[in-house]
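Contributing new records

If you add data, match the layout below exactly. Sequence lines come first and carry their own label; structure lines follow with theirs. Keep one chain per record. Anything else will be rejected by the validation script.
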Amino acid sequence: MREEHESFIENEFRECVERTIDRLGSEDTHRPFHAALLSEQALFWSRFERSFSTSFGQRVIEQVSRIAAEAGGAQIAQTQKETTVTLSSAKLAAIEEHMAGLRAGRNLATPDWESTLAELATIRPEREMQTIRVISDLWWQRGGINHYMSIKTVKPNIDQTAEAKRDMLKLKLADPKAEVYFGLYYNPYGVNRADYAWSPPQRIFNMATDRSVLIGKDYWDALGGAGFYEELLAVAERVGRQTRKRIGALR
């Protein structure tokens, strides 16, 4: 990781903690039952963790992911990328039918990514075309190839997951050379991908085997190259030696 990338990530991590501390004085709400049943300290740390997680999982992860892509050799990287795609009405209808089948749990509908692409590729083109807009949380170009990623909370609900897959299929069918991903920036169930056990997205993707799904180390190494995940954790640990002192003073 180059010095400028490391410095950017350090600042993002540090400022996220600082913003969380600054918000605590103005964001408290009246919670009479919590106050009656829990200690003041428990309420404070609950608010702190919730506020930090919300901020970290939105802006910070997108920006750090963008820098990770640049560190991994991307010629250009952008968050909230708007892409216009043109597909036949038949393919768009097939995408919607596939997603409806997964949501309904129909026997013929499989979440497997490769099987889905192969099935959609058999649809014969037609004259009626539609142009639509797709927003990707992260886009980067590497070696002339477009890469798109939908970044979600590590425990996404089925609606979030289905919408992500719908967009990914549109992008892939419009640009078969593109790489598209469903990304979870860490695995809440352990180090190994096979340990991931949150059930809602399992109805939409084969979370353990689909190559379009990136979780934890796979997520970061796909962006920044082999070993980037460990480098990123080292940066977080270094920043944490400073932020933990500031947080400790809050007690």
